[in-house]
Design a protein that fits this description.
The protein has a domain at 417-463 and 501-511 and 551-780: Alpha-Beta Barrel (TIM Barrel), CATH 3.20.20.210. Helices cover 41% and strands 11% of the residues. The chain contains 26 helices and 21 strands. Bound molecules: glutamine (GLN) and zinc ion.
């Protein structure tokens, strides 16, 4: 299959980047052991060397001809870039010279002790130096560290990592193509704490460092360098397009000996296409999975430009239909000439698990439709062979791919006629509550008779080591089902009693039985499978195993009713039931690619609607449907936002509208930017929404006031990301601010989010203070 036999020629195969965590999460283990002090720096460095060597060897063996280097990172590639160019905020105390691992990890995770400048703005870190902020990398679930730049920022080459890793590979016999984040994307992702200052204005100062790196690489023998500019798929203004022109013109002039492969991915170049195509680079990579129509554009490229065809999905776990891909790209390659073409995944393989071969328990049928990073590289090699020497030289692999594709189209495991039938019978009545909010609110107030400013929490209570231990014992079979259930009931009972003692108004059961807010539901819905080793990096040493949504979704049995019923049996106070919403379940899973996301989402909405109905029938008067991931699902291009919001809101309404007036629907969103989606939030028409506001000092309530949001709101008054225990006065202060924006009748009092990551020692006094703050407010009002 690969090019190991000389008679078979193949096209160039690139990977753009590969997972760095190791097949058995070796990087996580090494990092955490280093951070805990159990192992030293040398051990960590050696783990890195081993992982890189294994990665290069594996790619070479599988037929990759354009092998990347510098795609490895101990924590994050954006952080690496910030360190490379010396963009290290003063608070980390770097005085020039090589950047120590201690400084690097302080930027990544914060550090205890040392000077902490209170004015740094990171109010949520009580001691030591705070970590840089973290946010999502484009529309993936990978999070990068946000570089912080100042108006008088100076750059200097402070880390030689790209050069060292290039040489490391070379010493092992690999000529690699080093990967760098491009200067424009780097600046676009950076932020400044000063107002009225654009990081992009620092381009002139930044470029010399990049030139230096490119020169050094060239000097050591590098022929190509891959510069990733995923900002090319965003809505760029003219200044950003000009910055691209300036940067790449500078590289062409200053380092003509280096050939640059410019990579734009995560979507279409769109209105940046002409800019990108005119840049003086030796190669251009296009994402042809998200934006297959770009294939028609390649004829417009300069005829000495190498084209990297991103045809294998780097973002999802499905096996490709290789014959279909060949049918599409063969004519284009015939036109361009083979020497101008490279075959690649749509983006770095960082975003998929490493090896399907490590899965021993996956349903074999579902498994036959999947490809993880290693299988995707095999697919690339198959394509390259078929394109280089003819399809007959890859006949076996193509046949297997065809068989998988056709099995998947027709499998009864995927296609459930009952689900299709239900989907087509959704009507407007199912999307609308019986009465308008005012009338529902009256019925609900009548029913619950809550005091003004009612207090509640978002759902989860601390997941203690004890709970984790019991869960692990249960899954290993060391703790029986019955024993585990009693254990969880005791946890729940204690939590309910305690909530009563401190005087919360609306109680929760604590979510002790849930391993994860999506997985818990996915495991009980049909249409999902779970992996044993399908880890992908979320940030730093935190990896997740996203559920795989492979088929039509239905809900065979109630999922939460028993736990709700048990918890409610312990108290006279209202017990709020907890569900994860359809949009969040979708956005945190690997999603099927054979139907639109909107359709998959509506299927989940119908299944969750059944759960809502069963909870109501069991007597639940308040049902919270969390949509933590609604905002992060927004498309990268503004022009696509409305369509997304429309089906996201529609799904929420399908899921939540089947209940009577006196049943109160809550939703929760743990983020703080609502200005641009407030219409959608309004359209969801939940009776109560809880949001994250404590850190923004209630500023974000502006959006709700300006919109005249009519329903009830619980703006978070307790920052659950911090171990700090908020004082009563701090919370009453925040609530005073909230009262300036909202009417008293609208206000609920709750923390920013669930408390699962906190300790009981923190949660107990914090929530007692919160209840006290509510009481003060009631006396004042
Ligand atoms: N109900 C969930 C919890 O409290 C909500 C978590 C979230 O929004 N991320 O844990
Ligand atoms: Zn939350």
């Amino acid at each position: 299959m690969s090019s190991s036999t000389n008679s078979v020629s193949s096209l160039a195969v690139a990977t753009l980047g590969t997972p760095r965590i190791g097949p058995r999460r070796e990087l996580k283990l090494a990092l955490e052991s280093f951070w805990s002090g159990a192992t030293d720096e040398q051990a960590l460095i050696e783990t890195g060397i081993g992982l890189r060597a294994a990665n290069w060897a594996r790619q070479k063996k599988l037929g990759v001809t354009v092998i990347p280097s510098n795609d490895f990172s101990f924590y994050d590639q954006v952080l690496d870039t910030a360190v490379m160019v010396g963009a290290i905020p003063d608070v980390y105390g770097w005085k020039g010279g090589p950047v120590s691992l201690a400084t690097y990890f302080a930027m990544a995770r914060g550090a205890n002790g040392g000077a902490h400048d209170e004015s740094c703005g990171h109010a949520h870190h009580a001691h030591g130096v705070p970590a840089l902020e973290m946010t999502k990398w484009f529309d993936t679930n990978y999070h990068y560290m946000v570089p912080e730049l100042s108006r008088d920022q100076r750059f200097a080459l402070a880390s030689r990592k790209p050069i060292e890793e290039y040489e490391e590979a070379k010493a092992l016999g690999y000529q690699t193509r080093p990967v760098l984040i491009g200067p424009v994307t780097f600046l676009k992702l950076a932020k400044s704490k000063e107002t009225g200052f654009e990081p992009l204005s620092l381009l002139d100062r930044l470029l010399p460092v990049y030139v230096e790196v490119l020169r050094e690489l060239a000097g050591r023998g590098a022929e190509w360098v891959q510069l990733d500019e995923p900002c090319l798929v965003l809505d760029l203004d003219v200044s950003a397009q000009k910055a691209l022109q300036q940067a790449y013109a500078a590289f062409a002039k200053e380092v003509p000996q280096i050939r640059i492969m410019l990579a734009g991915y995560f979507g279409a170049l769109g209105n940046n296409r002409d800019t990108a195509f005119a840049l003086p680079v030796a190669g251009l990579h296009l994402d042809l999975v998200r934006a297959p129509e770009q294939l028609e554009d390649v004829a417009k490229l300069a005829d000495d430009c190498v084209i990297s065809l991103g045809v294998i999905d780097g973002r999802n776990i499905w096996r490709a239909d290789l014959t279909g891909v060949l049918d599409r790209i063969e004519p284009v390659i015939a036109m361009l000439g083979k020497e101008r073409v490279q075959i690649a995944p749509s983006c770095s393989l960082l975003h998929v698990p490493i090896d399907l071969g490590l899965e021993t328990k996956l349903d074999p049928e579902v498994s036959s439709w999947l490809a993880f990073a290693i299988q995707k590289i095999e697919e690339l090699a198959t394509l390259a062979t078929a394109l280089g020497s003819g399809r007959e030289h890859a006949a076996q692999a193509l046949k297997a791919s065809d068989a998988a594709a056709s099995a998947r189209k027709t499998s009864s495991r995927i296609h459930d006629p009952k689900v299709a039938q239900r989907l087509s019978s959704i009507d407007d009545g199912m999307r609308r509550r019986t009465s308008a909010f005012r009338q529902r609110a009256a019925a609900q107030h009548q029913r619950f008779k809550l005091p003004s400013f009612p207090t509640t929490t978002i759902g989860s209570f601390p997941q203690t080591p004890e709970i984790r231990k019991a869960r692990a014992a249960h899954s290993k079979g060391e703790l029986s089902d019955a024993g585990y259930k009693i254990f969880l009931q005791n946890q729940t009972k204690r939590a309910v009693r305690w909530q009563e003692t401190i005087g919360l108004d609306v109680l929760v059961h604590g979510e002790f039985e849930r391993n994860d807010m999506v997985q818990y539901f996915g495991e009980q819905l049909s249409g999902f499978v779970f992996t044993e080793n399908g880890w992908v990096q979320s940030y730093g040493s935190r990896y997740v195993r996203p559920p795989i949504l492979f088929g039509d979704v239905s809900r065979p049995l109630p999922m939460t009713v028993e736990w709700w019923r048990y918890a409610q049996s312990l108290t006279e106070k209202p017990m709020k039931a907890m569900l994860t919403g359809p949009v969040t379940i979708l956005n945190w899973s690997f999603v099927r690619n054979d139907i639109p996301r909107s359709e998959a989402c509506r299927q989940i909405a119908l299944a969750m609607r059944d759960e809502v109905a069963d909870l109501e029938a069991a007597g639940a008067g308040m049902i919270q449907i969390d949509e933590a991931a609604l905002r992060e699902g927004l498309p990268l291009r503004k022009s696509e936002w409305q369509a997304y919001l429309d089906w996201a809101v529609d799904s929420f309404r399908i899921c939540s509208s089947g209940v009577r007036d006196e049943t109160q629907i809550h939703t929760h969103m743990c983020y703080s930017e609502f200005n641009d989606i407030i219409d959608a939030i309004g359209a969801m028409d939940a009776d109560v929404i809880s949001i994250e506001t404590s850190r923004s000092k209630m500023e974000l309530l502006d959006a709700f006031r300006n919109y005249r949001y009519p329903n009830e709101i619980g703006p978070g008054v307790y920052d659950i990301h911090s171990p700090r225990i908020p004082e009563i006065a701090e919370m009453t202060e925040l609530l005073k601010l909230a009262r300036q924006q909202l009417s008293d009748g609208q206000l609920w009092i709750n923390p920013d989010c669930g408390l699962k990551t906190r300790k009981w020692e923190e949660v107990r006094p914090a929530l007692a203070n919160m209840v006290a703050a509510a009481r003060e407010l009631r006396e004042l009002a």
